[in-house]
Amino acid sequence: MKIAIDGPAGAGKSTIARTLASRLSYLYIDTGAMYRALALKAIKAAIDINDPQQLVDLAFHTHISFLPDSQEQKVICDGEDVTADIRSPEVSSVVAQVAAHPAVREQMVRMQQDMARNHSVVMDGRDIGECVLPDADFKFFVTASLEERTRRRIKELQSKGYQVNEEDIRKDIEKRDYQDAHREVGALKILPDSIVIDTTDLTVEEAVTRIMSIIQGGAVIKDAL
């Protein structure tokens, strides 16, 4: 079983996907975290994020894995736990540029498909339903209003001790929305077979329950065919 969850920044898709995977006992793959890990590594190595060849070479020599944890899934990059570091404002400000290079996405998609080859998975990102798992059994598009996504991002950063400005966060999300929607390859979009879940007024539990009911209903229909 393959479940694809796409959506813009701050819509809650990672939390929803992680919770859903736990309920189903599936492997959870956070592709956004993978691009963030690569962006973090590029920053540390002082690599020009506008140079796709340097980034592809970096990705080719980067090993990213996920380690389930009682609180949140840990992101391991080259043996180092980077779970907290990849959520920094510095990484957030460049990750869309890193992910925009077609050659970089090609390498990362290859890594993501390898992860999903032998497991039932819940995978979230920007282009999962179209590029990474086009044969997914279910494709969801999780979204929320810009105001709600800004509020959530501020709350997340403040909980980690960052001092933030609301207008700066809003502009950063708007910038990422534009970059994600206008990428040459793997652009963020609602597909004809996507099921849209608006989480603006939903808790994580409510969103997961709604998705679970759709999956269970779809599975019953498939079994009857």
Description of the molecule:
It is a single chain. The chain is of the alpha/beta class and 225 residues long. The chain is built from 10 helices and 8 strands. The protein has one domain: Rossmann fold (3-Layer(aba) Sandwich), CATH 3.40.50.300. Strands 2-6-1-7-8 form a 5-stranded parallel sheet, sandwiched between helices. A 3-stranded antiparallel sheet has the order 3-4-5, covered by helices on one side. Helix 1 packs across helix 10 and helix 3 runs parallel beside helix 6. The relative contact order is 0.20.
Helix content: 40-55%
Principal-axis shape equals globular
Largest sheet: 5 strands, parallel
CATH names the topology as Rossmann fold
Strands ordered across the widest β-sheet: 2-6-1-7-8
Number of strands: 8
| CA-based gyration radius | 17 Å
SS field, number of helical segments: 10
**CATH 4th-level superfamily:** P-loop containing nucleotide triphosphate hydrolases
Q: What is the averaged pLDDT score?
A: 91
Order of helices and strands: EHEHHEEEHHHEHEHHEH
- The number of distinct structural domains comes to 1
Beta-strand content: 15-25%
